[in-house]
Known about the structure:
alpha/beta; 10-stranded mixed sheet; Rossmann fold; single chain; 2 domains; Dihydrodipicolinate Reductase, domain 2; 6-stranded parallel sheet
Amino acid sequence: MIGIGVVGFGYWGPNLVRNFSELQKSKVLAICDARPDRLKSAQLRYPGVETTNDFRELMDHRGIDAIAIATPVSSHYELAMESLKAGKHVLVEKPLTMTSEQGIRLIDEAERRNLTLMVDHTFLYTGAVRKIKDLVDSNGVGEVYYYDSVRVNLGLFQHDVNVIWDLAVHDLSIMDYVLGMEPVAVSATGISHVPGKPEDIAYLTLFFDSSVIAHIHVNWLAPVKVRSTLIGGDRKMIVYDDLEPSEKIKIYDKGITLGNNGEGIYKEMIGYRTGDMWAPKLDATEALKLEAAHFLQCIEEKKKPVTDGAAGLRIVRILEAATESMKEHGRPLELYKGRVAA
């Protein structure tokens, strides 16, 4: 039985507590939050779990083996580092840290102490994204041409991060997982419509060492909620709509074919292929439940998590570069492992 301590009982923390409480291999022993009203809510829902506003009590708790952090991103590094130094395994909400340098330090500390460090990129554990990953890895869509996503809604405005760090982090983590390749450059544009607040609309374009291109649109000021992704390949194309209740993924046998009209390579003809559409059956298990179980398994078996510190770091590096590019009105910034260079 792995003892769990949860830091933060606001929006996401209750989901973490619920899932770890329902798993047979873990037990939530303590919940920490700075707000008395949240601690009261935790006490009412989980009367057998200790509650505290002092993070140090979780560090000193001998029964707690792992800490799940669901707090604002600005606090991730300090809380995760203290947890690792106390010998606790760590699951931290996305994004991993505010800077790539902080992410590198956490990874080094976890490796030095032989502890599990995992970032909560929840969408990677959904049945839909896992199915897309299988299709891409098995060459089901052929050579990937593009990744195009839209994630927009009205609110919820964040005070400590811009819309890229809040919403695009989801699509970047899905893209990183599905494509299995790192972008070499990013260009981003965005703007704030609320004085003194972070950017609320942004557009990202990512470039790769191939013909693949990715585009991500995020927006806190849309009149409707949209969660859609298109992945195009030379064999098939995927439409992923996370708001669909059942058929979240639709696979289209559509595309183009290149032919020659006999007058030389400069007279290539483009043909259009239109075939069937099918919607595969997806695993309906709650993503966070699978993620929590995976975290416990990695601790027990000393396995590398799917969403390990390195995965979190890759996303933070893109977020950093995109933010800098946005300040310079979309100037492309090259991405390098360990640094960002113009």
